[in-house]
Specification:
Blueprint lengths: L2 H4 L2 E4 L4 H13 L3 E5 L7 H6 L7 E3 L5 E2 L2 H11 L13 H23 L9 H21 L10 H16 L1 H6 L3 H11 L2 H6 L13 E3 L3
Parallel strand pairs: 1-2
Antiparallel strand pairs: 1-3, 2-5, 3-4
Length: 220
């Protein structure tokens, strides 16, 4: 069996926050994968065959099993190897982090989508959804007033799972975000954007096509 056969395959899209957080966890765990960069309007059939819901990220393990939820990819990779202790926060527990992440993936994402992509939703009022999202951001800001990161003085799973969505919110109207009274959250987001994990996860790759030479995605 060659190296190529033993590496997981990751279908990914660079700007998708779900794929972003999966890539960062794979980097942090030192898990090399064959990266297949997807264009969402031109999804490869092999990805759809592996995961009929056809959303990124999709991770195919060497034994053929498929993980197609980004948070599950993060936890799988870090359970294999977690040198940065992302699954062991300085304060609180993994369960506490997963509960906070579910607030992000549920209510916050609901409001974010209707703020950023309001024209996709009938009768969505972007200003109203922005206000509701900011109530959640205000609670995060309060947590970050107490510790540098969401669960203590070093970053852990929750920080990297949530930050890509806060980035997306901030970029929807950067002036408004910068003018908001979230000084701790703004500092935390800047730390994230300047981290090596984000930088390495955001390297650009060409669209993958069947038969292309494998592209290996690995920590620098």
């Amino acid at each position: 069996m060659t190296d190529h056969d033993t590496r997981p395959v990751l279908y990914s899209f660079r700007r998708c926050p779900y794929a972003m957080r999966a890539r960062m966890a794979l980097l942090a765990s030192g898990t090399d994968v064959e990266l297949r960069e997807v264009v969402l309007r031109d999804k490869p059939q092999s990805m759809i065959d592996a995961s009929p819901k056809a959303t990124v990220p999709v991770l195919i393990l060497p034994d053929g099993s498929v993980i197609d939820e980004s948070l599950e990819i993060m936890v799988w990779a870090l359970a294999e190897n977690d040198p940065e202790k992302w699954l062991e926060p300085e304060s609180g527990t993994l369960e506490d982090m997963l509960a906070l992440i579910s607030q992000n993936d549920g209510p916050f994402k609901h409001h974010l989508d209707r703020y950023k992509y309001f024209n996709r939703y009938e009768d969505a009022d972007p200003a109203e959804h922005r206000r509701d999202a900011e109530k959640i951001l205000n609670r995060l800001d309060g947590r970050l007033a107490v510790g540098k990161y969401l669960f203590g003085t070093r970053p852990a799973l929750a920080d990297f799972a949530i930050a890509p969505f806060i980035r997306q919110f901030a970029n929807t109207d950067r002036d408004a975000f910068d003018a908001a009274p979230f000084v701790h959250l703004q500092r935390w987001l800047d730390d994230f954007l300047n981290s090596r994990w984000f930088a390495d996860a955001m390297v650009k790759y060409d669209q993958w096509h069947e038969g292309d030479e494998p592209v290996i995605f690995k920590a620098a």
